[in-house]
């Protein structure tokens, strides 16, 4: 797992619309990188809805919220459409878990990303992180506090 203060591992994944997206594309903006185990699971869906309903995370600041799952792009598109999520959903499906592995949140045993969240500053360095067990939701207020520290 990358340590706070070190460069965030770069990756290129495909979003829910079939576009290739690299983390480095967002250099100059902060990035809240949210790994989730499975689309459509209760906890992941609740977290997605919380992100959707929290425009204050990105309002008046250069911050991108990127959600990453090992699900296929088709699953992620259906998940976004079902819940009206307009943000970036990236598929870490193939090579399976490559970005999740780079961030130390891939479970080899279960074939999924655990609940890791990483705040990356505009220079591409890791500023904050939290990893929760698979079934335990993260607190969105923790994101707000960490983001406020960047300002």
Highlighted features:
4 helices, 25% helix, Glutaredoxin, alpha+beta, 151 residues, globular
Structural class, from secondary structure content?
alpha+beta
Order of helices and strands: EEEHEHEHEEEEH
Number of strands: 9
**How many independent structural domains?**
1
Brief synopsis:
This protein has 151 residues and is an alpha+beta fold. It is built from 4 helices and 9 strands; from the N terminus they run βββαβαβαββββα.
Give the topology:
Layout: E1 12-15, E2 20-22, E3 30-35, H1 42-52, E4 63-69, H2 73-83, E5 88-91, H3 98-102, E6 106-107, E7 112-113, E8 115-120, E9 126-132, H4 140-150
Parallel strand pairs: 3-4, 4-5
Antiparallel strand pairs: 1-2, 1-5, 3-8, 6-7, 8-9
Description:
- It is a single chain.
- With 151 residues, the protein is an alpha+beta fold.
- The protein has one domain (12-150): Glutaredoxin (3-Layer(aba) Sandwich), CATH 3.40.30.10.
- Helices cover 25% and strands 27% of the residues.
- It has four helices and nine strands, in the order E-E-E-H-E-H-E-H-E-E-E-E-H.
- The protein has helices spanning 42-52, 73-83, 98-102, 140-150, and strands spanning 12-15, 20-22, 30-35, 63-69, 88-91, 106-107, 112-113, 115-120, 126-132.
- Strands 2-1-5-4-3-8-9 form a seven-stranded mixed β-sheet, with helices on one face.
- The protein is globular, with a radius of gyration of 14 Å.
- The model has no long low-confidence stretch (mean pLDDT 96).
